[in-house]
């Protein structure tokens, strides 16, 4: 599994936005409440029906709520099985993004965004 750091994701969004697809895999409601600016929403449950809308030649980055959320990892594996090869997993998720004060859309007030991550 290819991991991408918060710094590399930020740089990609800043300098290479036309060549990447950043996917928030949470529910539509959670996405509307808070998401990384420039990302799109494809909830894991809708992934199969939306595969054909994704461009295989672009770098695809998936993310979830926080580092303990398994949904982005499951999405990554499903995309890999569907033949996507330029895949990355941003493990820090919305929690790390918000806590680093990077640009978001939505009100971003959900409790999970402001909790501390558990130690590994």
What does this structure look like?
The protein is of the alpha/beta class. The protein has a single domain, classed as 3-Layer(aba) Sandwich (Oxidized Rhodanese, domain 1), CATH 3.40.250. The chain contains six helices and six strands. It has helices at residues 6-15, 28-33, 47-50, 71-81, 93-99, 111-114; strands at 20-24, 35-36, 40-41, 59-63, 87-90, 104-105. Strands 3-1-4-5 form a four-stranded parallel sheet, sandwiched between helices. It has a two-stranded antiparallel ribbon with strand order 2-6. Strand 4 (59-63), helix 4 (71-81) and strand 5 (87-90) form a beta-alpha-beta unit. The radius of gyration is 13 Å and the shape is globular. It starts with 5 loop residues before the first helix and ends in a 6-residue tail after the last helix.
**Largest beta-sheet characterization:** 4 strands, parallel
Mean model confidence by pLDDT:
94
**Overall structural domain count:** 1
Number of helices: 6
Give the uncertain stretches in residue-range form: none
Give the SSE order as H and E letters. HEHEEHEHEHEH
CATH superfamily: Rhodanese-like domain
Helix content: 25-40%
Question: Which descriptors apply to this entry?
Answer:
alpha/beta; Oxidized Rhodanese, domain 1; two-stranded antiparallel ribbon; globular; 120 residues; four-stranded parallel β-sheet
């Amino acid at each position: 599994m290819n991991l991408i750091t918060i710094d590399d994701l930020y740089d990609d969004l800043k300098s290479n936005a036309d060549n990447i697809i950043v996917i928030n895999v949470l529910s539509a409601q959670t996405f509307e409440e808070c998401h990384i600016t420039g990302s799109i929403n494809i909830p894991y449950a809708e992934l199969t029906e939306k595969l054909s809308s994704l461009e295989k030649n672009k770098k695809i980055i998936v993310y979830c709520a926080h580092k303990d959320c398994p949904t982005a990892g499951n999405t990554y594996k499903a995309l890999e099985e569907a033949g996507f090869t330029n895949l990355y997993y941003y493990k820090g998720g919305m929690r790390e993004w918000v806590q680093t004060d990077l640009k978001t859309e939505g009100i971003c007030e959900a409790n999970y965004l402001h909790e501390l991550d558990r130690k590994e």
